[in-house]
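FORM 7B: Structural annotation worksheet

SECTION A. Query
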Amino acid sequence: METTWKKRLSGQISPELGREIDIFETQLELRRIGKLDEKIFAETRLRRGVYGQRYDNGRRHDGLRTQQLGFPTGELTKGPETMWDAPGMLRIKIPFGGITPEQMEMLADVADEYSHGVLHVTTRQDFQLHYIHIDDTPELMRRLASVGITTREACGNSVRNVTACPLAGVCEGEAFDVTPYAKALSRFLLGHPDCQDFGRKFKIAFSGCTDEACGLVKMHDFGAVARIRIENGTERRGFALYVGGGLGTVTQQAKLFDEFLPEEELLPTAQAVCRVFSRLGEKRNRARARIKFLVKKLGIEKFRELVLEERKILPQDLLWTSYLKELPAWGEKPLKEGKETSLNTRYDDFNEWLGTNVMSQKQKGYAVAVVTLPLGDLNS
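SECTION B. Predicted structure
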């Protein structure tokens, strides 16, 4: 009898992620036998990062006429006009773009086994796998969860992947490394009850410095820029906090919410912002349901007032600050001391690449090399 990945990975998946995947698998089976409405199932799969894809209505035009595709499950759908057997896409969240070798190996394995061997890297530090059959998604999710990766809330009206400057931790100009804060906020808001009733998606970004736009914080719903303030001779960490940014057909630069938000207030303030957005944000008209429209409607002063009032009545949560105790041990240290070296060669093409794609790290003797992925695609 063939052993399922659920059994093989028993004990390797966190209880929370395992329970979430089990719920989705149950919903998938209910839809398969017709006991779950297709619109409800479409919403629940999207909140797990499971998308439809082109031609998912089962029809293709060959240049002369539209032809119907024959699928094994017939007319079964996974959403309105979205056929069950039509190829889909799975979006995989990589908070702050931080990924380990073990996770990369797993991503390569599942890309080979369930997709076409290509991982698409998005502009918001996600991976996307195309040509995924929906029947494979629970086992695929379990394999990802076994190395600490989730697809939960990679789509839908939820807190999307929390991004950060790609040079965080090695940038010479950063105030401090923002990655532990991005990681903590990502974990805190994942599946949080206060984030389950948004009218639209909610995107968060972090940046380590004010002078560079690497983190693109002012294009996001919630953006934090690292700041250091000296108080009574002591260095104190915090963030310049921005809210209400966004692109789309109605672009808006985020508004300054707080010039210096102390680090211990980051998570509770984010929770308060989410509660105000959930309560007052537009729900019926999707075109005006992002938080930027709420900020514009109320004005930043009134919005700030409402958030601060919400913050005052929040019940105390140990998760707000528990991660701060781990900060002194955070960060990688070089395995060996770096050495200065001259990389100029007689090859003009290499020297040109060196000038545009290589930059010094704040760790002496080390450098960052930027590799360009054609169309954002990475072969497994």
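SECTION C. Observations
The mean pLDDT is 93. The chain is about 30% helix and 20% strand.

SECTION D. Sign-off
Analyst initials: ____
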